[in-house]
Amino acid sequence: MDFWLKNIRSIQLLTLITLGQALGQAAERFDYHSIRKPASAAVEGVLEGEFLQASGKARPQDMKGFGAGWSGDAHLLWDGEVGDANTVEFEVPKAGQYTLAMQWTLAPDYGQFEVRLNGSLVETKLDLFSPDVQLAKLRELGEVELKEGTQRIEIKLIGGNAKAKKYRDKGYLYGLDYLRLKDLAPKPVREKEPERPEVVAVDFAEARSLMKAHCFRCHGVKKVKGKVNLEALAKRADVLKKVELARHAAEALAKAEMPPEDEPQPASVERAKLAAFFEGVVDEYVSANTTLEPVVMRRLNRYEYNNAVRDLLELRGDIYPLPEKVIRSSQYFDPASGRMPKGVTVGNRTLGKFQVERQILTGVDPFAIDLQAEHGFNNQGEQLSIPPILLESLLKLGRAIVSAKEFDDYTELRDTFFKDDGQPVATRLGPFLERAFRSPVDAETLNRYAAYHAGVQKRTGSYKEAIKSVVAAVLASPKFIYVVETKQGARAKTPANDYELAQRLALFLWSSIPDELLLGAAREGRLRQPAVLEAQVRRMLNDRRSRALAQNFARQWLRLDQLITAVPDFDRFQVYYSRIGCEQWKFGLQTMVEPLLLFESVQVEDRSIMLFVDSNYAYRSDELQAWYTKPEAPFGTRGNRSRFNTFTQVFRKRQLTTRREGGLMTTAAVLTMTSTPLRTSPIKRGAWVATVIFNDPPPPPPDVVPEIEADDAAIEAKGLTIRERLKQHATDQTCASCHARIDPLGFVLESFDPIGRWRDQYRGGRNIDVSGKLFGEADFNDIEQFKDAILARPDKFMRAFSEHLLSYALGRELKVTDKPAIDRITRRVLADHGRFSTVVVEIAKSMPFRHKTGQNERK
Amino acid sequence: MNFLKNTNIPRRTFLHGCGAALALPFLDVMQAHGAKTAAPKRVAFFYTPNGVAQEAWHPKETGHNFALSRTLQPLAPVRKKISLFTNLDRVKVPGTDGHAQAGACYLSTAAPDELSPAGYPLKRTIDQVIADTAGKVTPFRSLELSCNSFTDNRESVYFDNISWYGHGHVARSIKDPRKVFQRLFNVKEHQANASVLDLVRADAKDLQGRLGRLDRHKLDEYMDSVRTVEQQVERITKHQVDARDLGIEQPEKLWTTMRRDEYIQVMGDLMILALQTDLTRVSTMMVSPERWDTPLRFEDVFEKPIRHHGWTHNQNNKQVLSDLEKLDLFHMRQFARLCQKMDVIQEGEGTLLDNMMFTYGSGLSSGMLHECTNLPTVIAGSAGGQLKTNRHDQHAKGTPIANLWVSMAKAMGCPVQQLGDSSGVLKGFLV
């Protein structure tokens, strides 16, 4: 790579509010609402025309139909009459000498133009006429001097070629594919490393005396609660040996989970010191033990298999219906535009009978769904094996796909890969296998597949049949099905090679295989260069395929599947069911779309992830809006309810008027799926918040689990609120410490009924007590204060979100050795105020993502 | 060798009380094998989750011809062919979920130090161990079925599978009866599978040298599966059990629209069909997954969808307890009905049931405290007269259920000495 243009990012004005906090920490409060995707982003110095900030009638045009070659498969299209002009703008991060080149499109109705850069003429008469639609020769405009900031290019229509056809009988068009900028004096741009918080060194003697005062009574020689004996750790080295324990201790202290609430509490300085001691031990351990947890080779899951086949065979859509895809519309999702439409019309897979799955390709059925790990995602090797029954499915699937009657019209490769062009088959099998297997293809493998092709062709007399058989075999090959990484000679920490990195990126961002651009960078051995890596990540995020993050990651992160079988009581919550007297039609499933659209909007518009905690907008259908604002009659009348449309709904962006709403926690979907049919379940809600929002999942419930009454009416009949009832339940000491951690996170949501509607008091008239304390330091008395408490400690959520996403990206659980990487990611995400793309980029650049671990040393 | 023939027995004999589903013809396996060969012995497991209500389960009497308890009443018609075992225990490992362990570890009862990376004591389960021997001649080494009709993704793989090849290698069950049908009887589809096996095996061999230790285990799974599929094709081709010859068609109704009892019976019918036609000799059937606290409908038993798991923790409530007993009774009826179906299928002197060990069990005894001592265990059939039946054997407290697994394996002619925490064979198991 001969140039590198620092990614251009417009500077946001931030509203800084400093909150005085209980412990005197001054956290920076930033305006997370204002963070947006910048107007244009450069990929290796190339500014795509379609992403440029342009005036007037300019608009992006998809160029796929005109053949390959257009960068990003699109260009910027403009039309006007002679004399009209428009401007496009881009930004450069620093003043200096650059070379500029412009790639135009030629066409029969394109005109002649004058082009000015920052006022000076660079093209006097650019003629874009051609009898065919094609790319022009790249126009090198030579060296230009640019100041820092916004640059303007004015493009003025001055006439038309005599042979050119007028556009709409009036004027002419232009098409601009991209601008290429090359910095002639690139200085290495050093990224500012956000400051590490200062660590206070606390020595063992002091820590031990603090432990003696506050911990040993329950975690000592006499009593060993939770199998934790701190007294047995007689020297610092002993603590080092129990690093997982140290990590838990540091966390429990920092979050004020220990000592338990009803025990004497240490002074805040003491608490901080003891936490710092354990933190120090953990840091010492991880700096000496950098061996990453090995990732076990896994197979593609059902969602990834679909995407991989779709992309490999360049299909027009999915190969089978995927219940994993909740939202049934892809039209609006366009991350390159950086904007979500104000309203989207979407179908909802989970809603109603009309969404029953039909085959897309005749005879092609998905294999069984892959279940999620208990605390993680459905991409962990330990859960993904290939028993005979699955191998049978895969063998059958491969055949069924290529022999489906719709297939030939469904693949873009019909007239290329699947058609005999007289050349030896190996010439086209080579690139195909490289892409399918995500690795270079050796001669032996190539010959094997070519020989197989020859055999089938001889037998059937058909080139096409033979190539289809090859494809069917490839789709069942372990090289396609498994996520293979070479471990030969791999040690504790070996950089993943370029192809492996390409594969990791494609699975992470697209749940698919690499495309040609990514493979190209790998083939040339450039992908491991940090700048190239980052540019590729940003390009991939701009691609529609990045929707996999919303469909696959977000759905699992939020555990939204659990809404599907939530059954609010039919008699008490009739509004949940759209047809009177019919339990099959759950109107309430519409709520599932809301959190997913919030996620998509943050992703597409590259906003701050803090919006997941609290947003001032939501995407809702009219009925769903009424669900929140007119809970007693969201449908208006009974008649409306029966006419409710189960095919599609229009979800509009609504500005929220109350901070009770906004973010993920208070969506009806989350609140409903964490309730039982006849009452809320603060424990389930609390466990959800602990797991999803703070990535601090509670341990599995103990064996002694007395069930609470199923109906809140039965609880209220005893004169109790559910909170009081649960308090009785948690008096048992063995339960108390866990419940002290989980329950307050659920109690705060008690202002919402079992289907997520606001309530001021319980049905029996009792007041709702939602008060509590977050991390032992921030009191809250309502949901707004609770959100504020999280927002005032943004690093906590940013860390948790980064951990979830890193675990998803790696396909394994995180371990203590990942802590330095997470620390670093969190610092950078915090410095960038939680921008979504920053989380993704930092994960892709992190040590665990770029490295692999050998597996032979460990027993 | 096409030996299967049709009879005119109406399907109602099998599917009494259920909607239209699958018509089971009688097939005389003995005739097929030639009168001189003894009928093969077969083993199947019928797993119910979350334990059972204790008081209604346990009979007051032990020994021969004991009086059936309330929950065991449905077994009355086949009572002479059943054995009940009590005081059999499973190992429990703290730190992982009680229900996941109940399901995933029930048939392996791995020792606590044999932990998988996820913390579960998982090993090759006894059905698979038996299949290593008993599956050597049948087209399918084993058949794994599940009647999990939940459509959401609530619990992990450990709650949803009782059969495992080993660590992280689940013997995935089939939930869709039509898929079971296709797998058992679509010979052509199996034969088509064979065409690319050499090619993909060569790819697998390429990979072997490049992988790490853990990865190679994963690849071994693949290689094993390639071998299994290959053998299946070979044996199915030889066996030639074709649905057309049987005169049966795949279940008409979509499984997601079936009543609960219908679903279990149709799945059971398919299992019986596979055992009867010697397509396999080993099968597991998980009636519901563990925990999965989503309400589930039981038509004609409860008015509203119910939460089995939730109830088990609330057994102190009399009403809940009586509902729980009703549910246990429902499951027992399903089991008994399948036993009866097996018992009318003649095989030589006896019936299919006589040549079976059809085991009813759960990985928990009482769900209330996730107890795994005194697990509910009934075996129907005598493995060709090897077992005493019509008896209730009360074993010494703390007897590992693994001893039963070892004994059953022996009865199946499988040379197993030890499994998990087993301490020998089960006393008095064989005649």
Give an overview in words.
The complex is a heterodimer of chains A (859) and B (431). With 859 residues, chain A is an alpha+beta fold. Among the domains of chain A are: 46-183, Jelly Rolls (Sandwich); 204-288, no CATH class; 321-358 and 546-677, no CATH class. Chain A is 35% helix and 15% strand. In chain A, the strands form 8 sheets. In chain A, strands 3, 5, 6, 8, 11, 12 and 14 form a 7-stranded antiparallel β-sheet that branches. Chain B is an alpha/beta fold. In chain B, the strands form 3 sheets. Chain B has an 8-stranded mixed β-sheet, sandwiched between helices. Residues 1-26 and 28-35 of chain B have low confidence and may be disordered. Classes of the chains: A alpha+beta (859), B alpha/beta (431).
SSE topology sketch:
The complex is a heterodimer of chains A (859) and B (431).
Chain A: E1 17-19, E2 27-29, E3 46-48, E4 53-54, E5 59-62, E6 74-80, E7 85-92, E8 96-106, E9 112-117, E10 120-127, E11 134-135, E12 139-146, E13 149-159, E14 172-183, H1 204-214, H2 236-241, H3 243-254, H4 268-288, H5 302-312, E15 327-328, E16 343-348, H6 388-403, H7 407-410, H8 425-437, H9 443-460, H10 463-474, H11 478-481, E17 494-495, H12 498-510, H13 516-523, H14 530-542, H15 548-557, E18 577-579, E19 582-586, H16 593-604, E20 617-620, H17 622-629, H18 638-642, E21 648-655, H19 668-673, E22 675-676, E23 679-680, H20 682-693, H21 712-717, H22 722-729, H23 733-747, E24 772-774, E25 778-780, H24 783-791, H25 794-810, H26 819-831, H27 836-845, H28 847-850, E26 851-852
Helix pairs in contact in A: 1-4, 3-4, 6-10, 8-9, 9-10, 12-13, 14-27, 15-16, 20-23, 25-26, 25-27, 26-27
Chain B: H1 29-33, E1 42-47, H2 54-57, E2 63-64, E3 82-89, H3 98-105, H4 126-134, E4 143-146, E5 164-166, E6 169-170, H5 177-185, H6 187-193, H7 197-208, H8 213-239, H9 243-246, H10 260-276, E7 282-286, H11 308-312, H12 318-343, E8 346-347, E9 350-351, E10 356-361, E11 377-380, E12 391-400, H13 401-411
Parallel strand pairs in B: 1-7, 1-10, 3-12, 4-7
Antiparallel strand pairs in B: 2-12, 3-11, 5-6, 8-9, 10-11
